[in-house]
Predict the 3D structure of the following.
Amino acid sequence: MRRILTLLILFGAIGLEAAHLVGGELSYECLGNNRYEIRLVIYRDCASNGAPFDDPAIITVFNANNSIFDNLQVPLHSSSLLPINAPNSCTSLPSFVCTQEGIYLDTISLPASGGPYTFSHQRCCRNSSIDNIPNPRLWGNTYTIEVPTSVSCNSSPSFSNAPPVALCLNQYVQVDMGANESDGDSLHYFLCSPLHGGGSQTQTTGPNSPRPDTSTAPPYVQVPFSGSYSTSYPIPSSPAFNINSQTGMLSGTPNQIGQYVFAVCVQEWRNGVLLSTLRRDFQFNVTNACVRTAADFEPQDLDPFALCSGKTIQFEEVCINTSTWLWDFGVPGISSDTSSQANPSFTYPDTGVFQVTLIANPGTVCADTMVREFKVFEGLNVSFITTGQACFDVHRFNFIAQGNFGPDAIYSWDFGGLTNSGLSTSNDASPQNVVYQQAGTYLVTLEIEDGFCKANYSDSVRLYPRPILRHDLSSPGGCAPYTAEFKDSSEYAGNAIHFWDFGDGSSSTQANPKHTYLQAGNYVVSHRLITTDACRDTLEETAPNPIVIDPTPISGMKIEPLEVDIFNPEFDILITSENYTQSTLIFPDGRRVIDHDKEITYFAKDTGVQRFTHIVRNEFGCVDTTMIETYVQQPFRLYVPNAFTPNGDQLNDVFSYSILGTRNFRIQILNRWGQRVFESEDPAHFWNGRMYNSGPVLQGGVYTYIMEVIDKETGNGVVKKGTVSLIR
């Protein structure tokens, strides 16, 4: 227990105003030895912008003379959100409601000689939106209870359950306002008036402030009701709210949205003596945002085009506050026409009219039922076929309707364009000999109406112009062999087969073929076009002039031998060409000889490949060419001197050697001690008698050389060793 020794420090009128309070209650429990635990419960609207719970809360204790026995500063023990549970289990509350419960606990010793005692807590203010009291912001809250001393160690009743955070408009509700009573005393429940307490926000301290530092002594002013409201009728309802005096069960059906203050009192009686009265002051919020269980499903689409879709029907639930479903599809005489799926489909065994039932939350007290009528018809499956030639100049179409419809069906044809009747429509079952007024593509639509059902089908018909054969059959011709190219540019629709006859016994089915004529002659070409769909026809044309292929002369030449060496570079040429009027022979050195002899001798001037070309031409300008390559070898030759005199007289100043017919070369020169004095891989780089040609002058004497070469023609390696004298 804590006593207030000084005035509480207040934080300003606006901060102290508690317009967020929605109710409270005060009870106690005897702990023995004249000690009592005080329990204060405060309910606040946590969705508002009002002040938080007071911490501490002030509870004033009055003795039998209504004098202050003690003034307690009671700490906030705990706070929690009340669950958003509807008092009717078939209804869900909106998520935006929010009520917070704060519990204050403290203990106090009360001598028996000073009693009875009264506990009181006062706090301003109530919500300005309350509908059943006048000027609600002017009325505060007093939570109070008496502690008798005529009996020893009595505990007051305490409510068993927290009140609901909201009530649902037009939904019957039963709220358990029953209390626990640990002493075995009798309890009596009744509706009573809320009590006023706390001052206005204009006072910041004292008993008239929003949070008085000391409660006023009893008796307390009752909060008045306005209009038709009263203690026994605090909430607009039908049936009106009432409370069972023995069980504390509060029941009724609220029928108007709003916020309503009420109070429930519980009297504690023992042997005909009233010991205490427990009072719950609370604000009920009545809302139309609650969601209750309601069975519903989409009605059948009675549009004639959608109605006759066959015996399989898709169902779609639109229930409210529902977690389980039970469908009965209404087929007489069977029990298997059910489903527990939310959105089932069902195939009916036959056509007809059926009563479909949906139960939302079946088997519960919240179950709700919806029944709708569904008509089941076979689908009409409308289509049509078209017969007749598609060429515009000879066309006449016959249309034949197909589908699952009866003899009384009504036909509506739309041909998509004007016909020979002068109209674009018809109501015949199967229109015959329909002729369009011009070529083109037309979208034909058939609509069938049969009883309650309608269906339509559309398809295109196309009128094609007569195919036109166009191509290029001509060719300039030329010398055999000659390749001619042919191109088709015909106009037709759909697919076609091509047949080309090249006049030499050869043919092709390609649209744009190529053909090579191997022999001279005159060849007549023809082209046939066969259209296989759309406007079917066969067209053929033969070229008016033949393709002329001229003969080609034959160039021939023999050369012997094909390989010689540079020391005997002679080639004998024999001309064997035929059917020419002019010939040209081109030698390897570039010389040209026109109209030459049949036999010619040629002497090569260099080694390597020698290319001879013979060109012949006839009177038609046709040309033929022969080319033959021969080869002149460079045989391997090596000359190495045995002495040289590097004295600067420009005569025999270097160790020079002559090499022919080699592919690779390397020379090393060693002195008499085996030391290398010169080395090179260039056959034109000679030794000048100095160390590596740029070092010190070497003394006269005999030096050893090692020469390694690879024969250009044979690829064989040759190593030659010898000596050379350096003479100073």
